[in-house]
Structure formats: structure tokens, C-alpha cells
Design brief:
- The protein is globular and about 60 Å long.
- It is α+β, with helices and mostly antiparallel strands.
- Helices cover about 25% and strands about 25% of the residues.
- The strands form three sheets. It has an eight-stranded mixed beta sheet. A five-stranded mixed beta sheet has the order 1-10-9-12-7, with no helix packed on it.
């Protein structure tokens, strides 16, 4: 399919230090209806922590493949995924990743549910301090996402604390994915760093190493499709809305197609995917429906929806006996 010339897309910037939440909500609402992508600043995450996380990420991907395969992902998608392991329907090539997420405690009800199972970690003798750095960063990203969620609630004409419940974001499903791209994309041959897709959950918070590659398509039905670059800006994170929020908002807020083109440089990025709790029912919000605007999507439990989407985007692979973590 022919594509229009790629350009750089300007995005709204959400300032978490702005005390005028109404003003923030108004500008954020427009961004969410327009393209579902925006920047966030004054988020409170130190550059030192972010740099340490990227350094530790690179250390893992620089390990010999034999060492990385000892942390091969399990049936709950946690751990290492080598290049070409992800479903090739979307044309992903030369991309390897490491997935980790929220864990439930052994003595609580969450620990038995698949989206709260224990993580797989690299050997601490090989990468000392690696796990602690990643866990600290995961907590910081979760804090920022919850702050954004309060402004999103206001933008949807809800109370600011609407999402702050045990059914929604008090016990969220929150995954962090370390990504390493290499090689060269060729859209004419269907070869991408990451093929076009929408994210499954409520929102995604993205940090990159500054190497250009992320593109979005604001109108998926437009022919030819128009893809625009979203550059990284120092001191900011890129935020995009996912399918759960599009369903919650009855299509008012956009979960937008995006992809990554590799340009021959090594590229590292870290998306953080936030979804509501395992048992949350995803159904149209009360402020997003009326007699003339009936719910467009059937209600579905979050765990069922995410399971369905993961099965669509991952091969059913399992760790081999010799590589399965002990």
C-alpha cells in the first residue's frame, strides 16, 4: 500500500506541575480526541534514574544469546523474547525485548491470577542491581500514569479520583517492556522494527534513547495512509492512549495506530503499559453515552480482553526445558 510522505507531528504537552487542572483537562481532551498522543513534562522522574535504566537495559541486550535465553519468556509473557519471536503478522523484524510487570504477593488473591504472576529476572551475579533498578523505575512510571489518569478523568467529565478504586487503578495490570531494535526497515516489503498496531490497555508511557523511529497514523481508514514521526524531546515522556480507554470513552478518545521504523542504528526504548485491574469490567463510562449516543462496544472483563489481544499478537511459544528458569 502506498503511503504519504512522512512528516514530524507536533503534539500537546501536559504539564503535571500545572495547578490549574481544569486548563490541563481541556487541552488534554482535545489531544485525546485528535490523535491520542501527547507529551508529559514535570513528571518527577529523575534523569539519573532514566539513564541508569537505559544503561542496564543495554547491558542485558549485550549479553550472549545463551545468557539471555535463560530468562526466556514464559506463558504469562514475562521475560526475554528474541528477535523474530513476536507474531510476524505485523512485520516485526530485528526486535528483541524483555517484559516485566506487576507482581501479586504469595499470600494475596492477586498472586494466583495470570496478570500478577512472578517476573523472570536475569541472573543477579551476571547483572548485579539490575532487578532493583527496574523495580524502582516501574514504581515511578506507575506513579506518573496515575497522575495522568486523574486529569483524564476530568477530561471525561468525571471526578478526578474516578479511576482511583480497587476495581480500576489501585490494583492495576502494569507492564514494562525493554526494547532493542536494529537493522533497517522497508515498508514496501512489509519489514518494520515494529509493525502498525494499537496498544491494548488504558495508556502507555514511553521513553526512548532519542533515536527517531516512532510514527503514528491518525486516520487508519485514509487512503493512502499518512504516517507522521513523533520525536522524543528531552525531559518528556510520550504518552498514548490504548484500546481500553477508547472503549471506556465510547470512541471519543482515540487509540491510534503506530509503528516503529528502524533506520540502521541501534535503538532502545521502554514503553510502560497501564491497564485497570484484572476483574475490572470495561464498559462505556456514564459521561460518554446518551439516548443519542449508545454504547458502541460490549462490556468485557479486563482480563478476558487482554488475554484475547495477547493471543492475537504473540506466538504460543514456551520455554524449552533446558532454558526454562529454575
Amino acid at each position: 500500500m502506498r503511503e504519504m510522505e512522512n512528516k514530524v507531528l507536533p503534539l500537546t504537552c501536559l504539564d503535571l506541575a500545572n495547578f490549574d487542572l481544569h486548563q490541563s483537562a481541556v487541552s488534554l481532551k482535545q489531544a485525546c480526541m485528535d490523535c491520542g498522543f501527547f507529551y508529559v513534562i514535570n513528571h518527577g522522574i529523575s534523569e539519573e534514574l532514566k539513564e541508569e535504566v537505559f544503561e542496564q537495559s543495554k547491558k542485558f541486550f549485550d549479553l550472549p544469546l545463551e545468557d539471555k535465553m535463560k530468562a526466556l519468556r514464559n506463558e504469562t509473557h514475562r521475560g526475554y523474547s528474541p528477535a523474530l519471536e513476536q507474531n510476524q503478522i505485523h512485520g516485526d523484524y530485528n526486535k528483541e525485548s524483555f517484559f516485566m510487570g506487576t507482581e501479586g504477593l504469595k499470600d494475596d488473591s492477586l498472586g494466583a491470577k495470570p496478570f500478577y504472576r512472578p517476573n523472570i529476572w536475569p541472573d543477579s551475579d551476571v547483572l548485579p542491581g539490575w532487578r532493583t533498578t527496574m523495580e524502582n523505575y516501574h514504581l515511578e512510571l506507575l506513579r506518573v500514569c496515575k497522575a495522568i489518569a486523574r486529569i483524564l478523568a476530568l477530561a471525561l467529565d468525571l471526578d478526578a479520583d474516578y479511576f482511583d478504586t480497587s476495581e480500576m487503578l489501585e490494583n492495576p495490570i502494569a507492564y514494562m517492556r525493554l526494547l532493542h531494535y536494529e537493522g533497517m526497515s522497508d515498508p514496501s516489503r512489509g519489514i518494520y522494527g515494529c509493525g502498525s498496531h494499537t496498544d491494548h490497555g488504558m495508556m502507555t508511557l514511553l521513553a526512548t534513547d532519542g533515536v527517531m523511529g516512532l510514527q503514528i497514523c491518525k486516520d487508519k481508514d485514509m487512503k493512502p495512509q499518512k504516517w507522521e514521526y513523533v520525536p522524543s524531546i528531552d525531559g518528556t515522556y510520550i504518552v498514548n492512549l490504548g484500546d481500553v480507554l477508547e472503549r471506556w470513552s465510547n470512541g471519543l478518545f482515540k487509540s491510534t495506530l503506530h509503528r516503529v521504523l528502524a533506520n540502521g542504528q541501534d535503538r532502545y526504548s521502554i514503553p510502560f503499559f497501564l491497564s485497570p485491574s484484572h476483574d475490572c469490567l470495561i464498559e462505556c463510562l456514564p459521561t460518554c453515552q446518551s439516548e443519542n449516543n449508545l454504547p458502541k462496544y460490549p462490556a468485557i472483563k479486563c482480563s478476558a480482553y487482554l488475554t484475547q489481544r495477547y493471543k492475537e499478537s504473540h506466538r504460543e511459544t514456551r520455554a524449552s526445558p533446558e532454558n526454562r528458569p529454575k
